[in-house]
What we know:
By secondary structure, the protein is of the alpha/beta class. The protein has helices at residues 4-20, 44-51, 56-66, 90-102, 135-152, 168-185, 190-201, 207-226, 238-245, 250-277, 288-300, 308-332, 351-360, 399-412, 428-441, 479-497, 503-524, 535-538, 546-565, 570-575, 585-594, 597-607, 610-630, 641-662; strands at 29-31, 40-42, 77-79, 83-86, 118-122, 156-160, 364-367, 370-373, 388-391, 418-424, 445-446, 449-450, 452-458, 461-462, 531-532. α23 packs antiparallel against α24. The protein is globular, with a radius of gyration of 31 Å. It binds arginine.
Amino acid sequence: MKSTIDLLEERISAAMAQATGQAGCAAVVRLATDPKFGDYQANGVMALAKQIKTNPRKLAESVVAQLDLSDLCEPPEVAGPGFINLRLKPDYVARELLRIAEKDGERLGIPAAATPQTVVVDFSSPNVAKEMHVGHLRSTIIGDCLCRLLEFEGHTVIRQNHIGDWGTQFGRVLLGLWHMCMGQQRQHRYYESGLKELRSTAKDEEGLPALCRHIRDRHEEDWRADSLEAEGDGKVLFKPFLERLDRLPTDQMWQDFLVAYQFVSALEEALANLELRMPTRRAGTINYALLSRHVTTMVQELDRPGNEQEKLAWEKIRALSLRHCSEIYAMLGIDFDESEIRGESFYNDKLPAVVHDLRSAGLAVESDGAVCVFPPGFKTKEGEPLPFIVQKSDGAFLYATTDLAALRYRVNELRADRIVYVTDARQIQHFQMLFKVAEMAGWDTRDGEKVELVHVTFGSVLGIDGKPLKTRSGENIKLKELLDEAIERAKAVVEEKNPELSTEAKSQIARAVGIGAVKYADYSNSRTSDYVFSFDKMLAMDGNTAPYMQYAYARVRSIERKAQTKGVDIASELASVTTLNLSEPSELDLAKHLVRYAEAVEAAIADYRPNYLTAYLYELAQKFSGFYNSCPVLDAPPASRPTRLLLCGQTARTIGHGLSKLLGI
Length: 665
Ligand code: ARG
């Protein structure tokens, strides 16, 4: 079954073609801007009139003369320069609603996609060497919602969590772990005191080199003791250390691990600054940076003999990180299975071929020692051609190389018809260039068919001060802490409103409300804008919030309970309904909105915008309120009661479906 808007589009387009003899006319039917003018308007006549150089108003009139919409609408009216205003007949609305409620129960009027596709959705994708922070929230939940929408539309969705589990970052963690190992070995957690000292001496030109030299000497001494001279693969110290990690509680391990990472990053940063400030100092004087590079190179060659301990360390770090991520995914109600977590490391052995193939196609060239593609149309600030670098001069591959390999894999192995990438807006240029290079290489086609590449972007999460959300000390807010706080705050509300509930019920509700509020607040903002994160606002009982929607849902549902106490048998009343009686304006208003659910869902999918769905649901809750305040349901006269019961039932189903099935709340 087609949605109302599609039916109107089809019929009016046909009438336009008939009136002008033109093929491919588009009626451009939209929701009316003001209910005064009706329910829908067709805007396409103006463009057509311009194209064939005729008076738009006259054309609109002759289109209307051709048009028979008597089964759907009141007689169409021409307005302004050539709009066609359309008002649905209550009869039609009643029939539609009955059809959706009775025959189309599961789908709530939403037609399945005419040509189902295989859609790969790349989302969440945190760098696992770090803690997930609030920036990962949006990709994770927007991506999840898009998957749900596409799946419900009938597409085969393949989720891909493109985690950053490779490269320099991992080199740092490895090095950090090494420090931890040595610290434990010497009964001295010097990575911790080192970090403290480093912070305090960061501006001290005398102290810092001394500290760095100290750390370097210690480090190199240890390294030597545990490397080739000893066993050849760090079996003496590092491997037993890594094995001991398994016996540590995850939380402690995770905290240690973060400190180790911070330590190495801070050290590197300090050294970089130092070199900047002391350009005459020979690079080799403090060669910590080289050491870190050395580990990074090893990370890139994990499978080489002699690198067993690095490989083991990599595996442990990755597993630990993923355990941390899955805790957050579980809180958010998002589920990735093993094959859906396909990180950067997965493509490692496919990278040389990417560079090779680009070179032999004549697309990649050497520039300053690096291998680059220069896609047309991209310029640096200075107006020079902008390179898409696929290999550095030291042989290392990059983010771009991995993305090209992933794209090929998704097109050829996963057989995607469409690939959707969900990341923040700062990566726009990367993806524009990626798509362009893929097109140049012909990698975005399979069997002669173009694969559609889509970048879905989003803005930042801001604090009340309008700046990107950070802790007071300026660090990224950890996602785990943010979610915990949401649950805590929701719990306080539950305590206050329903002190009589059991502890278990309270914490279950607090979870649903707290997490629901965070997700809903994100969804209800246009994804391309930044938004201000406010617990107070998102947990408010009024306005377009999760608690309001959850309450609205509960309120509709409570009618069923009341029906029982009043001895009203809803099921048997509904079973006897053959026509609906929409005589009250608020009944008709609610019914019209209910039959529009498919339009809202389709619009949300077409633009990858969950906020179209939240806006629809909010309006639905408001229209239901309007109806419920003016029309008694259980005490309605017999002629009205079945219709009203059906309106209530369908409202509950629609809100429930939108919140839980499509938004995952
Ligand atoms: N790991 C990246 C980040 O945290 C996001 C990856 C997005 N996906 C991709 N295929 N590049 O910024």
